[in-house]
Design goal:
A: mainly alpha; ABC transporter involved in vitamin B12 uptake, BtuC; B: Rossmann fold; Rossmann fold; six-stranded mixed sheet
């Protein structure tokens, strides 16, 4: 056992940084907003023409879409897990949406019910394997995404087929006053539900308890397994719905179209202040984190580098952000 | 040979050792005795290099030595067999024994053949019946303890520290161990032997050092001490050898039995425990560490499933499938192991206080923020918890206040039966007093409280009745005039004096 003596060095400089650090840790959502603002300002400086209604509308639209799988990812991460299958689920329901709608109106409810059922089922499968059986979440959710991906090929034979219904597409893409896309209405339904679950229900309280200290939560009377499995189920359902919206936005959907969202959502959530260790995080942070991801990609598009350079830059910036966040955490503990 | 002088150790505000000292001569077995928390294990850990003392010195053969780490300790010829074992469960018996002192050939390769021969020889000497390639985790707890000692002896130490190694050993194994200890003694090895079993002291030890509340109170040859003397030095009072009778049970008969545990066993610690608690009563559970107290408490809660026996709660036989079921039935649980079992350190004070309520009622119902805040504000005020802001994380509080947080969490839920497992471990005296007052008030209002405590004074102070556990069985039930420190300590040590088991 090392000696527990701590050394205190009265150092004004250090004090400033520790205060800054404390601020960063306690205001993670705000920090993400600040980072987003900086990214946007850089983009505008490089390309002043980038500030137009179409671009802003697209930023809002994409942020809303990413914020939905990020909601599930937030829940799973808070409870101490990780969900890599959100991308595959999104792709699957997107493919299903175009395949079933075939560009005709009137299939929305059918598609919604089937999609949510698929999302819930895959989430449940994830939950059972990770929590009940106790396999590593990263491997399980990746393996299950693989199955979900193959199912898309079985359904469509890998051929681009169908189209989202025009009505459904318009509820996503059309822009109010030419700026605000209609998808905001979906956000106004989904976001409050997520906030309610996380902040105003015992489910949310238990989620944080389980993630912070599963053993204490169990002895306190929380059904830990149930809560963790539920977090995966919600994550699956949210991703399924996001996939439908994505299909409406793109009109057509090839297999694996949204697979990227697994990483995108995970990183958005972490930039928003939710930790891998579980037990902390917030949805407002994840929404801000989604905005950061979209603006980062927007900035890289503006710079217009070749694809490999773009990937390198993307990765480097993300690693920089994650390192900054992890440093904050290490100092506290 | 070995001398420790003026050793001080503080963990924060808690004094673990206060100018403690001990001396061991060459080829001598010295017993280190004392009740729970008296500092015995800390002394051993100082020698093993696991605890850095704040002051004091260690002399070996008259030379001052500095022990900063386990490596230093090994270099000075000290080997330790720990109570909680230093074996790696997922490694084989052979690898565990050779860990850190692998046998190599001239070319620097591991000498597989020689290793195997030496390990087999060691296992034969200790009568350990297992293959060198068996994984440690597959062995019985008693075999593991034996292996722990064998591992220490394999290092050919000059000084061997044995910290409560016989706690889980069987009789024949203890006999083997004692034979080996005698052989080692003849070879000139000095041994420090920590034990709670009094008869072992008289059987194997040459001298004894007794500690009480972090200080060394006395030492000398074992032949100068009687059993009563040892208990006197450990507790500060002489045991009265009076006939203990069933104490004042008459007025209990018409009281409602809230929970009755009948002959439960939980492998491997609990063998056969029966106890009951009446409405509005504070029942204490005493005993040395590891006699099955936590298992019994967790069996009632539903966190542990007993192999046999039954638990009758509120007049019905119950078998809760998990703690959630127990909590639903009106049971609350407060653990003293705050970091592992009670506190949500990165969550806010509000959330920590509300945690009991969070766990209990419907999952998706609306919770008003105001109600939650009021709930925790009231608790903070009522139980005098010293906090900064309600939004601060629980880790910002001192140990005592964290514990009050957990106590408040459950008291506010007003459970029918409150279970506490060593709730004041590492809690300062003032907070401890406050927690006791809260418990007394609750019991007076009809709550039933079952409390296990390692501190004997605390146990006697708070409980109406005390069950003393020894080796997984109830060694004594003390109440009324028999609820004294001497009776408690002798029952804890498994000393069969004239105290009768009360029915």
């Amino acid at each position: 056992m090392p000696s527990k003596n701590m050394t205190f060095e009265p150092n004004a400089n250090k004090d400033f940084f520790s205060k800054l650090n404390l601020f960063v840790q306690t205001h993670t959502a705000l920090m993400a907003v600040i980072i987003a603002a900086i990214l946007y300002i850089i983009t505008i400086i490089i390309n002043p023409k980038g500030m137009n209604t179409v671009a802003i509308g697209n930023i809002i639209l994409l942020t809303v879409i990413l914020s939905i799988p990020a909601a599930g990812q937030t829940m799973v991460l808070i409870s101490g897990g990780m969900d890599f299958s959100v991308g595959a689920i999104m792709s699957a329901t997107a493919v299903l949406t175009t395949y079933t709608m075939k560009g005709e109106n009137g299939h929305f409810l059918t598609v919604l019910i089937i999609s949510l059922a698929i999302g819930a089922f895959v989430g449940f499968l994830n939950g059972v394997c990770c929590v009940k059986i106790g396999l590593p979440a990263m491997i399980v959710t990746m393996a299950i995404s693989n199955i979900v991906t193959r199912m898309q090929y079985i359904l469509t034979q890998g051929v681009l087929s169908g189209k989202a219904s025009p009505l459904f597409s318009s509820t996503v893409k059309f822009k109010l006053f030419g700026v605000v896309p209609h998808i905001v209405v979906y956000a106004l339904i989904i976001w409050p539900i997520v906030f309610y679950l996380l902040k105003r229900s015992r489910f949310g309280k238990q989620l944080y308890m389980v993630g912070n200290n599963a053993n204490a939560a169990r002895l306190n009377g929380v059904r830990v397994t149930k809560i963790q499995v539920l977090s995966y189920v919600f994550s699956g359902m949210l991703a399924a719905f996001a996939g439908m919206l994505g299909a409406a936005y793109m009109s057509t959907a090839r297999c694996q179209i949204f697979d990227d969202y697994a990483y995108q959502s995970l990183i958005a959530v972490i930039i928003g202040g939710t930790t891998f260790a579980g037990g902390s995080g917030s949805y407002e942070g994840s929404i801000a984190g989604s905005l950061v991801m979209i603006l980062l990609s927007n900035l890289l598009t503006t710079l217009n580098p070749t694809q490999p350079v773009r990937n390198v830059l993307n990765a480097a910036i993300l690693i920089l952000l994650l390192v900054l966040y992890n440093r904050g955490k290490a100092v506290r503990q | 040979m070995l001398e420790m002088k003026g050793i001080d150790k503080r963990f924060g505000a808690v004094v673990a050792l206060n100018k403690a000292s001990l001396t061991v001569k060459e080829g001598e077995v010295m017993a280190l005795a004392g009740s729970n928390g008296s500092g015995k294990s800390t002394m051993v850990k100082v020698l093993a290099g696991l605890v850095a003392p704040n002051a004091g010195e260690i002399l070996i053969d008259g030379e001052k030595k500095i022990i900063h780490s386990g490596t230093d300790s090994t270099r000075e010829g000290i080997a330790t067999a720990f109570q909680d074992l230093s074996l790696i469960p997922t490694m084989s018996v052979k690898d565990n024994i050779l860990l850190g002192c692998e046998i190599v050939t001239k070319s620097g390769m591991v000498d597989e053949k020689e290793s195997r021969r030496l390990v087999q020889e060691l296992l034969d000497r200790f009568h350990i019946d297992c293959d060198p390639d068996d994984y440690v985790q597959t062995l019985m707890p008693s075999t593991q303890s034996m292996l722990e000692v064998a591992k220490a002896v394999f290092r050919k130490p000059k000084i061997l520290l044995l910290d409560e190694v016989t706690a889980s050993l069987h009789y024949d194994e203890i006999a083997t161990l004692f034979d080996i200890m005698r052989e080692l003694k003849n070879e000139g090895v000095s041994m420090v032997y920590v034990t709670h079993r009094m008869n072992e002291i008289f059987e194997i030890c040459d001298s004894i050092t007794i500690m009480r509340s972090s200080e060394t109170v006395t030492s000398g040859p074992v032949s100068d001490f009687t059993l009563d003397d040892i208990i006197f030095y450990m507790t500060g009072a002489r045991p009265k050898h009076s006939e203990a009778k069933t104490a004042a049970a008459e007025d209990q008969d018409d009281r409602e039995v809230v929970v009755e545990v009948k002959n439960i066993s939980v492998y491997p610690k609990v063998k056969d425990i029966s106890m009951k608690a009446y409405k509005g009563e504070i029942v204490g559970i005493g005993g040395l560490e590891g006699q099955g107290q936590p298992e019994v408490i967790r069996s009632i809660l539903g966190a542990v499933r007993p192999q046999s026996g039954s638990i009758c709660y509120m007049g019905k036989d119950v078998r809760f499938k998990d703690p959630a079921a127990g909590v639903k039935a009106g049971i609350g649980f407060i653990s003293g192991d705050r970091s592992k079992e009670a506190v949500f350190d990165i969550r806010t004070i509000t959330e920590n206080i509300f945690a009991g309520n969070s766990a209990k009622e419907s999952l998706f119902a609306y919770l008003s923020a105001k109600k939650v805040r009021k709930f925790s504000e009231d608790a903070v005020k009522k139980y005098n918890i010293k906090i900064g802001k309600l939004k601060d994380p629980a880790s910002s509080l001192s140990g005592g206040n964290q514990q009050k947080l957990v106590v408040a969490r459950w008291i506010a839920m007003n459970p029918n039966l409150l279970l506490l497992d060593d709730p004041t471990k590492g809690v300062d005296i003032h907070s401890r007093q406050e927690i006791h007052d809260i418990l007394r008030e609750c019991a007076a209002n009809g709550m039933t409280v079952i409390i296990a405590a390692s501190d004997t004074d605390e146990l006697l102070n708070i409980s109406d009745r005390v069950y003393v556990f020894y080796e997984g069985k109830v060694a004594a039930e003390l109440s009324g005039e028999f609820k004294t420190s001497e009776h408690l300590v002798s029952a804890m040590m498994g000393v069969k004096e004239k105290v009768q088991e009360a029915e």
